[in-house]
Amino acid sequence: MSDGIQGNDARPATFVAGIPPGRPAEPQGVGDVLAILASDDAGFVSALNLPVNGELSALNRHPPQA
Protein backbone atom coordinates (compact mmCIF):
# COMPACT_ATOMS: atom_id res chain seq x y z
CA MET A 1 0.00 0.00 0.00
CA SER A 2 2.87 2.38 0.69
CA ASP A 3 5.09 1.29 -2.20
CA GLY A 4 4.41 4.50 -4.16
CA ILE A 5 5.37 6.66 -1.18
CA GLN A 6 8.43 4.88 0.16
CA GLY A 7 11.60 5.97 -1.57
CA ASN A 8 9.98 9.11 -3.00
CA ASP A 9 10.91 12.05 -0.77
CA ALA A 10 8.65 14.52 -2.63
CA ARG A 11 5.43 12.54 -2.35
CA PRO A 12 5.01 12.66 1.47
CA ALA A 13 5.71 16.42 1.47
CA THR A 14 3.14 16.92 -1.30
CA PHE A 15 0.57 14.88 0.62
CA VAL A 16 1.14 16.79 3.88
CA ALA A 17 0.94 20.13 2.03
CA GLY A 18 -2.65 19.25 1.04
CA ILE A 19 -3.75 18.67 4.64
CA PRO A 20 -5.19 21.92 6.06
CA PRO A 21 -3.35 21.72 9.42
CA GLY A 22 -0.12 21.23 7.43
CA ARG A 23 0.93 18.12 9.34
CA PRO A 24 -0.04 14.46 9.47
CA ALA A 25 -2.30 13.18 12.21
CA GLU A 26 -0.83 12.05 15.50
CA PRO A 27 -2.25 9.08 17.41
CA GLN A 28 -2.97 11.38 20.38
CA GLY A 29 -5.30 13.53 18.27
CA VAL A 30 -7.35 10.53 17.17
CA GLY A 31 -7.31 9.16 20.73
CA ASP A 32 -8.63 12.47 22.06
CA VAL A 33 -11.68 12.17 19.82
CA LEU A 34 -12.28 8.60 20.95
CA ALA A 35 -11.92 9.60 24.60
CA ILE A 36 -14.62 12.25 24.22
CA LEU A 37 -16.97 9.82 22.49
CA ALA A 38 -16.39 7.22 25.21
CA SER A 39 -17.03 9.73 28.01
CA ASP A 40 -20.29 10.65 29.73
CA ASP A 41 -20.09 14.00 27.89
CA ALA A 42 -21.13 12.18 24.72
CA GLY A 43 -24.20 10.62 26.33
CA PHE A 44 -26.57 11.90 23.64
CA VAL A 45 -24.31 11.08 20.69
CA SER A 46 -25.53 8.12 18.66
CA ALA A 47 -25.30 6.84 15.11
CA LEU A 48 -22.49 9.24 14.30
CA ASN A 49 -20.13 9.18 11.34
CA LEU A 50 -17.28 11.40 12.49
CA PRO A 51 -14.37 11.70 10.06
CA VAL A 52 -11.13 12.48 11.89
CA ASN A 53 -9.16 13.54 8.85
CA GLY A 54 -7.64 16.97 9.37
CA GLU A 55 -10.47 18.93 7.74
CA LEU A 56 -10.22 17.14 4.37
CA SER A 57 -13.94 16.33 4.43
CA ALA A 58 -14.76 19.99 5.03
CA LEU A 59 -12.82 20.93 1.91
CA ASN A 60 -14.46 18.14 -0.09
CA ARG A 61 -11.17 17.21 -1.71
CA HIS A 62 -8.23 14.90 -1.37
CA PRO A 63 -4.59 15.85 -0.91
CA PRO A 64 -2.70 16.42 -4.17
CA GLN A 65 -0.90 13.41 -5.58
CA ALA A 66 2.54 13.76 -7.14
General form: elongated
Total tally of structural domains = 1
Compute the CA-based radius of gyration: 15 Å
| Major sheet attributes | none
**Proportion of residues in β-strands:** under 5%
Overall mean pLDDT stands at: 76
Helix content: 25-40%
Structural class: mainly alpha
Low-confidence stretches: none
Task: Count every beta strand, where a strand is a DSSP E run of 2 or more residues.
Answer: 0
Order of helices and strands: HHH
Number of helices: 3
Distance between the termini: 16 Å
Region (Disordered): 1-24
InterPro entries: NAD(P)-bd_dom_sf
Explain this structure to me?
The structure is a single chain. The chain has one domain (10-59). The longest helix is centred in the middle third of the chain and has 12 residues, at 27-38. The model has no long low-confidence stretch (mean pLDDT 76). It has three helices and no strands. It is mainly α and 66 residues long.
